[in-house]
């Protein structure tokens, strides 16, 4: 078998409404168990934690622990806690992929040992009301250490991503992955099928960034020495720190795609449109921003990683001017139209406030066709593709009791995102930007006059 597999390799997975609901309830129960475990462990003393968990690997502010004594296989063997950079929305969005092309591209950012991956089927994906929720099935195969000596590992799992609230009403992001067996995902001779059970919780950190709590267990399949399994498992758990870079790559890709539909007047003066210096020199050439298409010098542009369009295993970068670089942090991940509005703001910010307002009103909501939210996703995802539904099955783990799905986070639509207010905010930002630029120009002129004297 040659990897990567064709996009249509896996046959459709078809679920009845009852089977789909069973998986949703199963995911909700696993999530609630993790939240309960998180709250219980908050009351453990430092001495109790040290008796229970042994640190095995640390990376920046994240630490992975292994349980010192396992009573039985039902206990979770690993724990990962700490802090990562980014906002809560960025971290959760950095874990979201509801189709195979997007899943391959973000996986290429997360890990360098990726061989192939696919979205096997989707039960439910994000909507306007719940912009982060995803319930789906995925498959992945990765390279094992010692090429040719050890078979690659692959895994098939059920995944649930979204936002909920804890018992104190605070917002929690989460990602849970549970190995499953699907009749549409066969075993491959080139791979050993591994299994895992993982649940991440994400909470806002008061001093910045996002707090992470994860508990997990895995079985790499075959004969693996314990210490090797621990190290490789720890490396897997620590990849969560890439969530923010992945989210930024997704946003940057969307900005570049939206920028392709934005027109800019042809520039003939040859000056950088950011610092107004000469755009090209003896040892440097002029650049063009991939979003707003400004002509820039080499000092006012930066290479930004985006999702690869051709080979997902090869990093791809685009040129961003300093102004558009800031847009990555200004996108509202809960409002798909935010990307298009910011791109048009960036592209017209040199022509005056009145054109900003006109372009804003002409673009609001152009991605929407109905209330399903599907058309709105076109401005956000790096590519578009339908994921089919596939063959009958039910989770092989039993559970009891009634579980309700985590409720979608309520959005504040009290009028703060109306067109008039948005236009005023953009105008204020533009005036402030122009004032800063004028000050810089005056300082340059003053320095030149002083030098001439």
From TrEMBL:
<dbReference type="InterPro" id="IPR052727">
    <property type="entry name" value="Rab4/Rab5_effector"/>
</dbReference>
<protein>
    <recommendedName>
        <fullName>FYVE-type domain-containing protein</fullName>
    </recommendedName>
</protein>
<feature type="region of interest" description="Disordered">
    <location>
        <begin position="397"/>
        <end position="416"/>
    </location>
</feature>
<dbReference type="InterPro" id="IPR023393">
    <property type="entry name" value="START-like_dom_sf"/>
</dbReference>
<dbReference type="InterPro" id="IPR011011">
    <property type="entry name" value="Znf_FYVE_PHD"/>
</dbReference>
């Amino acid at each position: 078998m040659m990897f990567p597999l064709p996009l249509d390799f896996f046959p459709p997975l078809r679920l009845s409404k009852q089977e789909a609901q069973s998986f949703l309830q199963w995911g909700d129960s696993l999530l609630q168990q993790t939240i309960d475990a998180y709250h219980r462990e908050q009351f453990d003393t430092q001495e109790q934690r040290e008796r229970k968990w042994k640190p095995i690997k640390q990376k920046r502010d994240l630490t992975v622990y292994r349980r010192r004594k396992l009573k039985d296989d039902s206990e979770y063997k690993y724990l990962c806690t700490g802090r990562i950079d980014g906002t809560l929305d960025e971290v959760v969005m950095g874990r979201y992929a509801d189709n195979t092309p997007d899943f391959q591209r973000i996986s290429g950012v997360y890990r360098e040992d990726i061989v192939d991956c696919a979205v096997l089927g989707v039960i439910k994906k994000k909507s306007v009301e719940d912009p982060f929720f995803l319930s789906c099935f995925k498959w992945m195969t990765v390279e094992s250490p010692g090429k040719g000596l050890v078979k690659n590992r692959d895994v098939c799992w059920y995944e649930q991503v979204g936002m909920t609230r804890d018992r104190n009403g605070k917002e929690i992001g989460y990602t849970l992955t549970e190995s499953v067996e699907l009749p549409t995902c066969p075993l491959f001779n080139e791979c050993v099928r591994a299994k895992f059970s993982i649940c991440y919780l994400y909470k806002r950190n008061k001093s910045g960034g996002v707090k992470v709590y994860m508990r997990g267990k895995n079985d790499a399949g075959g004969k693996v020495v314990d210490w090797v399994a621990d190290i490789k498992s720890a490396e897997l758990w620590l990849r969560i720190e890439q969530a923010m870079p992945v989210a930024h790559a997704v946003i940057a890709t969307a900005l570049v795609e939206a920028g392709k539909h934005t027109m800019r007047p042809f520039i003939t003066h040859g000056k950088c449109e950011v610092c107004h210096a000469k755009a090209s020199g003896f040892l440097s050439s002029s650049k063009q921003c991939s979003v707003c298409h400004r002509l820039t010098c080499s000092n006012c542009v930066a290479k930004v990683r985006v999702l690869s369009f051709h080979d997902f295993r090869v990093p791809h970068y685009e040129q961003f001017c300093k102004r558009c670089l800031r847009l990555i942090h200004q996108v509202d991940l809960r409002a798909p139209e935010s990307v298009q509005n910011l791109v048009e703001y960036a592209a017209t910010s040199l022509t005056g406030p009145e054109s900003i307002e006109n372009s804003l009103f002409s673009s609001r909501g152009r991605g929407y066709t109905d209330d399903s939210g599907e058309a709105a996703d076109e401005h956000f995802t790096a590519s578009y593709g339908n994921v089919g539904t596939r063959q009958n099955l039910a989770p092989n783990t039993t559970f009891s009791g009634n579980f309700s799905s985590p409720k979608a986070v309520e959005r504040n639509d009290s009028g703060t995102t109306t067109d008039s207010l948005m236009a005023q905010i953009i105008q204020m930002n533009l005036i402030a930007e122009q004032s800063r630029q004028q000050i810089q120009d005056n300082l340059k002129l003053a320095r030149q006059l002083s030098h001439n004297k």
